[in-house]
Amino acid sequence: MLRASSLHLSPLVFVSQSPIFALLPALTIHRNLHTSLLRKPKPLSDLSDTHSSLTYRHSYHTFSSKFNRATGMADQLFISKATASFSSGSSSGGGKEILVQHLLVKEDDQKLLLELQKRATEGEDLSDLAAEYSICPSKEEGGMLGWVRKGQMVPEFEEAAFNASLNKVVRCKTKFGWHLLQVLSEREESVLEHIQPSELHEKMQDPSFLEEAQLIDVREPHEVDIASVPGFKVFPLRQFGNWGPEVTTKFDPQKDTYVLCHHGSRSLQVAQWLQTQGFKRVFNVSGGIHQYAVVDPSIPTY
């Protein structure tokens, strides 16, 4: 049984007490992951995408902080609180993602490890055991690590997890101690690509592309009033709390989805988040509408 929480999103958690997030399904990634077994994505260094006003910048960074903690972009906070990071620092893909929960005990607690493994094998929920005995911060969410792919975990854990049968509790040892882990589900790995404005512009000339593709503009309404690309639906990043919970009802995760903003930073964050929601093919428009205007001079710049 997965442990539910009012802070859960599927498949991630926002560190927010906002009631709207409590309406979302609970299954997923732990908000206090050590980095647990997840590799730390590179932080966005170019925030020039934000509006020049101090008010907008403050609002953007406030949202970004919450958003990043949910997706693992800003897990430095949790690393500083933990005794170690399970990050391997590399990513090699692998074709599938697995949903993993685990518990961690000290290296010299082998007696406890064997007792917990026996209890899990006899039918006790690993999530309940993790909540009570695990020394990983993920214990607060029943040991849930969320969806991971090859290259995101230390080798020993990765080998055990990707060779484990579904729902079978297995053990492995890393430099952090002994783990009991359980793979709850698996799915095809999603794809996030960057598309150049020139390529997108060429695609936009094809009526069939406009019928099949899902086009999302995450800029604010006042920006869209200045410049817009026909066909894009506007879902402002600052209004994420309104549309985020319903994104899979507004868009089909199986279809190609293109995300646009001013310079490409906000759209990248949303594109990465869409991946966590099960969107199979997501494209971030490199350089945003600012670069798209170079290809299509009819679009104003600002």
From TrEMBL:
Lineage of source species: Eukaryota, Viridiplantae, Streptophyta, Embryophyta, Tracheophyta
Name recorded for this polypeptide: Peptidylprolyl isomerase
One function term, GO molecular function aspect: peptidyl-prolyl cis-trans isomerase activity
This protein's UniProt keywords: Isomerase, Rotamase
Keyword Ligase recorded: no
Top-rank taxon: Eukaryota
PANTHER family: PEPTIDYL-PROLYL CIS-TRANS ISOMERASE, RHODANESE-LIKE_PPIC DOMAIN-CONTAINING PROTEIN 12, CHLOROPLASTIC
Ranges of residues in domain PpiC: 95-185
Keyword GTP-binding: no
Coiled coil (UniProt feature): none
Residue ranges of domain Rhodanese in the record: 209-300
